[in-house]
């Protein structure tokens, strides 16, 4: 669990790091079902991991809910000297799938906050209607509370500190 702030709203996100190995696939797929946002991650120093993204993407299409938000990540950006996948390749693949793209480094923290914030933003946008409903509800509750407070005050008692017990 982590709390991040997006557009002035504090959002609590639950993060699952699913296993990459084939033998855990059955369990991994179970996590897709409840996901609202997914990072598809490859390693920029491994062409093989980049090639695997197509397989991950088709699994996500098959098992994740329809409105799930996805971002493509090329991790280990700190390993420039071992790079096998160009940034352009990442961008190209992301474009094909209609996803945002970030190169990141879990070692140096490069683009970690940015990518999490962006994915959270996308999830919030996808749930905009529910969110606006919640905002309206909260505003209504507030207005009601203010109204009740007003009604409680006897006339001319606005400046009298002991006029009301509520
Ligand atoms: N240089 C560098 N190494 C990293 C980075 N992120 C992860 N690693 C290293 O890569 C190795 C694998 O990291 P994991 O976090 O186990 O990768 P994973 O994708 O969760 O592996 P799976 O168990 O297959 O799911 C570890 O030795 C990490 O220290 C990074 O950004 N830069």
Automatic annotation (TrEMBL):
According to its UniProt record, this protein's enzyme class is hydrolase
Task: Kindly name one Pfam family recorded for this protein.
Answer: Ras
Instruction: State the oligomer form and interacting partners.
Output: The GTP bound form of RAB15 interacts with REP15. Interacts (GTP-bound form) with MICAL1, MICAL3, MICALCL, EHBP1 and EHBP1L1.
Cofactor(s) recorded in Swiss-Prot or TrEMBL: Mg(2+)
The protein's matches in InterPro entries, at most eight in alphabetical order, are given as: P-loop_NTPase, Small_GTP-bd, Small_GTPase, Small_GTPase_Rab
Its function?
A: The small GTPases Rab are key regulators of intracellular membrane trafficking, from the formation of transport vesicles to their fusion with membranes. Rabs cycle between an inactive GDP-bound form and an active GTP-bound form that is able to recruit to membranes different sets of downstream effectors directly responsible for vesicle formation, movement, tethering and fusion. RAB15 may act in concert with RAB3A in regulating aspects of synaptic vesicle membrane flow within the nerve terminal.
Q: What is this protein called?
A: Ras-related protein Rab-15
> Which UniProt keywords are listed?
Cell membrane, GTP-binding, Hydrolase, Lipoprotein, Magnesium, Membrane, Metal-binding, Methylation, Nucleotide-binding, Prenylation, Protein transport, Transport
PROSITE patterns, alphabetized: RAB (PS51419), RAS (PS51421)
**PANTHER family per record:** LD44762P
What Gene Ontology cellular-component terms does the record carry? plasma membrane
Topology in the lipid bilayer is annotated as: Lipid-anchor
Location in or out of the cell = Cell membrane
One Gene Ontology BP term is: protein transport
Q: Which family does it belong to?
A: Belongs to the small GTPase superfamily. Rab family.
GO terms assigned for molecular function: G protein activity; GTP binding; metal ion binding
Catalyses which reaction(s): GTP + H2O = GDP + phosphate + H(+)
What EC number(s) would the UniProt record show? 3.6.5.2
């Amino acid at each position: 669990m982590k709390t991040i702030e997006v557009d002035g709203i504090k959002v609590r996100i639950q993060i699952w790091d699913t296993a990459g190995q084939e033998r855990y696939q059955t369990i991994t797929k179970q996590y897709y079902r409840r996901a609202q946002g997914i990072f598809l991650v490859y390693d920029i120093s491994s062409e093989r991991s980049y090639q695997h993204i197509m397989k991950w993407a088709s699994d996500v299409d098959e098992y994740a809910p329809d409105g799930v938000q996805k971002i493509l990540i090329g991790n280990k950006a700190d390993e420039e000297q071992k790079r096998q996948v160009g940034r352009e390749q990442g961008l190209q693949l992301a474009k094909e799938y209609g996803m945002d793209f970030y190169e990141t480094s879990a070692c140096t923290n490069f683009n970690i906050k940015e990518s999490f914030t962006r994915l959270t933003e996308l999830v919030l946008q996808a749930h905009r209607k529910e969110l606006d409903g919640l905002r309206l509800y909260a505003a209504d509750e507030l207005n009601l509370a203010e109204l009740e407070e007003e009604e409680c005050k006897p006339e001319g008692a606005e400046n009298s500190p002991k006029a009301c017990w509520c």
